[in-house]
Structure formats: C-alpha cells, structure tokens
Amino acid sequence: MIDSLLSTITDVLISSSDQVLAAADAAATTTPAASAPVSPGKPEVGPFRLISAIVIGITALLVLIIRFKMHPFITLLVVSMGVGIGSGLAPLETLKSVETGMGKALGFIAIVVGLGAMFGRMLEVSGGAERLARSIVRAFGEKNTQWAMTLTGFLISIPIFLDVGLVILIPIIYSLCKKAGKPLLYYGIPLLAGLAVSHSFIPPTPGPMTAAVMLQADLGWVILFGVIAGIPAAIIAGPLFGRYIADKVTCNIVFPVEGTEADDKDLPGFGMVLFLILLPLLMILIGTLIAIPAIGNYFTAVMFDRATIGDIIRFICHPFSALIIVSLVAFRLLGKFKGYTRDEVQEIATKSLEPVGIIILVTGAGGVFKSILSDTGIGTMIGDMMKTSAMSPLIAAFLIASFIRVAQGSATVAMVTTCGLMFPINEALGVGGRTLDLMVIAIAAGATVLSHVNDSGFWLVNRFFGMSVKDTLKSWTVSLTLVGLIGFAMVLLMSLFV
User: Fold this and answer.
1) For residue 185, how many other CB atoms are within 10 A of its CB?
2) To 5 degrees, how large is the angle CA 150–CA 279–CA 264?
3) Which of 187-191, 247-251, 384-388 comes out lowest in average pLDDT?
4) pTM, 2 dp
5) Which of 42, 54, 271, 445 falls between 20 and 30 A from 128, CA-CA?
C-alpha cells in the first residue's frame, strides 16, 4: 500500500514537474510585481516557480531515499541539479554551482573529519576508551555507576563515533549488570544518552562540525553551547530516564560476553587519555576567546606587549592545527605505549579513513545543495517571506531538521539538508553572531529526535540490547528524543541571553 502510494507520487512528480514550472513562468510573466528580489547573476524568475522547484526537490529527495533506496550522496547531487535547472539556472551555471559548493564544503570538513577519525581510531585500538570507562566507574563508586556511564559516553563520543563507542563499551555494561544484578538498560540508557549528546552537539564530531562549517558559525562558541545544552539533556535522558524505563522493557542479550578483559597494565593511563580528548576542545575554545576583541587586546597589548601574539595563538588554536597536534601527540604517546611500529601506526591511520569517506561525500553534497539555493535566490526569497512571520529562525531550523530526520532516518542527511536551506535564509534575515552558533545546536537537536526503524542506530541498539522493536521504541527512541527536545529547549533559553 505504502510502496504503491510512494510510487504514484514519484510518477506524478516526474511527469508533472515540467508543466508546473512552465505554469510558474507564465504566472511570473503576468504578475511582474510579485517577482522575487533578484541579485546579480541570479535568474529572474517568479516566486511561484522558485517555491515549486524547492517543494518538488525536497519531495524528490525523500522519495528517492525512502522508496527507491538511492544513496544520499547521489540523491543530493541529482536533486540539487534539478532544483537549479528548475529554478532557472542554465545547465552550465548549475554545474559550476555544484563544483563551487562541493569545493567550499570539503575545504574544511575533509581535513577536520579526517584528522578526527585518525585520532579516534588510535584511541580505540590502544584501549584508551576502555581505560577511560574503567577509571570513571571506579572513581564514582558502585552507587553512582549510572552517572559514571553517562560521563564515560559523553567523553568517549567526542573523538569516537557513537556506534564504535557502543561496540567498545557494551562489554562493560554487560559486566556491570551481571555484578550488580541490574536490568541491562539501567546502565545502558545512561551510556547511550552520554554518547548521543556528544555525538550530536559537540564538535569535532562530524555532525555538529558539518553544521558549523556550512552555516559559517564559530566553532568555539558551538562547542561551548553544545556542552551547556548537552549536560541537562544527558542527565534527564540518561540516569533519570534509565531508572524509569529499566524495569519496563525486556532485554535478551544477543551478544554474550566472551573472552577475558584486558589487564589494567596493558591500557594507557587515565590522565593521558583524558588529556588527549580535552586538548583539541580547549585549544579551539582558546582560539575563540582570543578572537573576542576585549580578551585578544588584553593578551596582545598587556600580557605580552606584542601585536602578533594574538595571531600566533589563533593559528595554533585553529581547528586544523589543534587536530593535527592532538593526532601527532596521540600517535606518539599511545603508539609508544602499545609498542606499535611506524608501519603499524600508518596502517591504523589509513584504516581510520575508510568509514568517514561517506560522511565527507554527503557533507560535500550538502554544500552543493546550499550553493544551488544561494545561486537561485530561493533562500533569499524564503528569508524575505520569514521577515513578515513571527517564527524564529531557530525554531524553523529545528522543525525542518526534525521533519527530514523522521522522514528518511539519517541524521547526517537531515543536518546537511537543513543547513543548505537555512544558510541563504540566514543571509536574507541577517542572522549572525551567537544566534548562528545556537542554530547549529538547534539543527543538531532536530536531527536527533525520533530515531526509529529507518535509522541504522536504532537497529544497532536493538541488537546489542536484545530488545523487541516495541521496547526499542520505548527506550532508545524516547531517550534520544529527550536529548533533542531538552537540547533545543536549552538553545531557546540561551538565545534570551546572547
């Protein structure tokens, strides 16, 4: 029934798009006063045609991904070119916009995601993540293990992908539950909430990093706002919700614990691991603080009496430099501790790049979508329309990201598509400064809510915790939705003070 309906919708869209756009041109010709504002180099077309192009484009994006299972990278490229031509751009101009958008997006993202993947992989294979978890659990004590797992997930997911973090830490959850006689989700939900918060809100994780780059936000402020929004989200969606839901679902462990645990002496030190995780965040935050005139002037003129010192600090604390430094330090410290040869370290670094290729390409395709919307004037037109409405751009960004997330499942696709839509709208509305930084978290929050059966993360949790689909919806989906909603509520609260 659903397949037939989607197929019919697709056929109608394909067969009628030319007629709709032709009618749009006719309407624009007969009502020139209603024409959208035109910037130099942008096609002179009416608003109806622009709206038709973007509506058809977004619909086609969802149908192609959901119904026809097309890869998001190809789909974003095809839809972007279709929207460009449908909005009046010449075919060659459309291709030029594709090239420009891809280049601008990947110029930053490819470097930071690649470096972050190398660092995270070294932390993973060296046992750093396991050391962090063990040390935090011991420090918190048995009565506070829920809080320990939340903090562990929060820290681990900064350099390591959520799914990898879960794979590494799930044996610890199994062991804790057996020793304490607690339901699996009693410790599992706090861990998942901690992982989800950092994965969603805190760069250099690819999701928020991508959004920050596409919206041209300040990375240091995004990190700060992400931490502020993430802490209450992790507390409520983790330990508090975990206590409530643990006894209400049934978990049958599918993957029993096998083998022996690594000896403590074979794991790197806790201080070393914590230092490596926090180093890039602190460096980026310092770079942001130095960029504030009052602080930067104090450093350069008062403390050091040299005008160039601020530029030097900003250079060292740039995300590129920070991640290069932490990657090299991690290779040296962790590699030496584990006794890896140079060839083994090189192999670890090379293999770390394999899983991030798709993230980089989808991000680049999102940059193409953003470029097309800017060049066609669609974003400017929507922004002008929003000027007369009462809706906050933060709310609009959250709702758009939520809709795309629920419709097709991928948080990455939801974020890059929403950023592509919001960037030209922000330019038209004059959105900037801290509001732009908060919008990154708003989009990340929207792309987090309502994980369900079309999300690969849903099935990962389903299998590792041995739950039915219904129980996974009651636990994982609700916890992740709490993360998104509370994170967005914190965004709205912070927007009142910045």
Assistant:
1) 31
2) 60
3) 384-388
4) 0.80
5) 445
